[in-house]
Design brief:
Length: 372
């Protein structure tokens, strides 16, 4: 107990001895006292007089009068409150004061989760509840809102004075953005539950990287080849399927259209002992072209056989690529006219197209669009 409190109590004991038992003013108005308390006292002593630690002994007007005389912070009240007002405030405090005050105190005062990836539960944070009051309290409910926050732990029930129990709070953000919530602890002895603010921000994990389409050149065949399949790239890099060398050209896959990949008819032509061919791949993002080639397949003649949707891209919108995308050009070696296997070069690199065009390939322009 502070020096002030001790002094106040001694003075009050003397006053009570002098005045006798009738220290409470006759006809005091507790409702008016409540209004005055909320206006003049709550700012320093809390909305509920029982929250002040230990509880205000001012259910006696003499104690309050002494406090106003002795506590420097309260001196201003001398000119504000009449003796009738002081009697009313004391009556109000007396009407709410009980034998003791349970006070539930959280540590920390606020639980802050900072940034958390959306959909991934955070590490649990500990929230301690301590009964700082002078009597036991009974916790009846513990909730966390909104549903992104969850609370667990064993604090429900009887909590003795000075005892502490631990809760565990987890944030699992359902969407990107700032979240504010609360752990609300309801206990029987208080009309107002104890509330601990919760803070956190959901952030989106980086998107899965888009596949990279890598270009190869085979100098023995004078053929180009592309693939978005990292496993196939690693295999081609071993040299097991021929002298395929990376050209240094690559682009990112992505878009609404699946790119059809064809390979020449691999069945053996009995007349030559070789496959029908062509020994080359062809790629198109145009569904009409894809369907046309699929139906033009002939089992015992040179033709294109559909393999798979190799990667995704978007179709050319009119003559240009939509905002945020870049053109992929296609050049043709004019194999049909030259009596050699058809082959195409497919790249975002305009200079590479110009190089093969300079040696007789046909510049077919923009074949598809891919992310910038
Ligand atoms: C500006 C802040 C402030 C305001 C406003 C205030 N008090 Fe105080 N009060 C204090 C301080 C500081 C103490 C001294 C606490 C200590 O010594 O531990 C105190 C002590 C007291 C005490 C004596 C200690 C006790 O626990 O019994 C009483 C009674 C009291 N105040 C009642 C009131 C009432 C009733 C009001 C409103 C009419 C009020 N106070 C307004 C700050 C304030």
């Amino acid at each position: 107990m502070s020096l002030h409190r001790r002094l106040i109590r001694i003075l009050t004991a003397c006053a009570a001895a002098l005045l006798g038992a009738g220290a409470l003013a006759q006809g005091a108005d507790a409702d008016h006292g409540k209004l005055l308390y909320n206006t003049w006292c709550a700012g320093c002593h809390g909305a509920d007089p029982r929250q002040s630690q230990p509880h205000l002994a001012a259910d006696n007007p003499g104690v309050l009068q002494d406090a106003i005389s002795l506590v420097s912070q309260m001196a201003f009240l001398k000119t504000v409150l009449s003796s009738v007002d002081i009697g009313d405030i004391a009556a109000y405090i007396g009407s709410v004061a009980t034998t003791g005050v349970p006070v539930l105190s959280p540590t920390p005062q606020t639980v802050d989760f900072s940034y958390q990836p959306v959909g991934t539960p955070s590490a649990p944070q500990t929230l301690l509840l301590t009964n700082l009051g002078s009597v036991a309290l009974n916790i009846t409910a513990i909730t966390a809102t909104p549903a992104d926050f969850s609370v667990s732990g064993n604090c429900i029930g009887h909590r003795n004075p000075s005892s502490t129990c631990a809760l565990s709070v987890v944030l699992n953000a359902s969407a990107a953005g700032t979240l504010t919530g609360a752990v609300v602890v309801t206990f029987q002895e208080s009309a107002a539950p104890m509330t601990v603010p919760l803070l956190g921000t959901g952030v989106l994990a980086p998107a899965t990287p888009l596949p990279i389409v890598v270009e190869y050149f085979n100098p023995d065949l004078d053929h180009y080849f592309i693939t978005a399949d990292a496993g196939e790239q690693a295999f081609v890099d071993t040299g097991a399927v021929g002298r395929w060398l990376r050209t240094g050209n690559a682009f990112r896959a992505g878009g609404a259209a699946g790119v059809c990949r064809f390979y020449g008819n691999g069945a053996t032509n009995p007349a030559t002992g070789e496959s029908f061919g062509p020994n080359s791949h062809f790629f198109t993002a145009d569904p009409a072209e894809c369907d046309g080639l699929k139906s033009a397949y002939v089992a015992d003649a040179p033709s294109w056989r559909f393999e798979a949707l190799d990667f995704s891209a978007s179709q050319v919108a009119g003559a240009a690529c939509a905002a945020g995308t870049v053109p992929v050009y296609r050049a043709y070696n004019n194999g049909a006219a030259r009596g050699i296997d058809s082959n195409h070069r497919i790249t975002t690199n305009r200079t590479s197209i110009a190089q093969v065009a300079a040696r007789g390939w046909i510049d077919e322009g923009v074949a598809m669009c891919v992310p910038q």
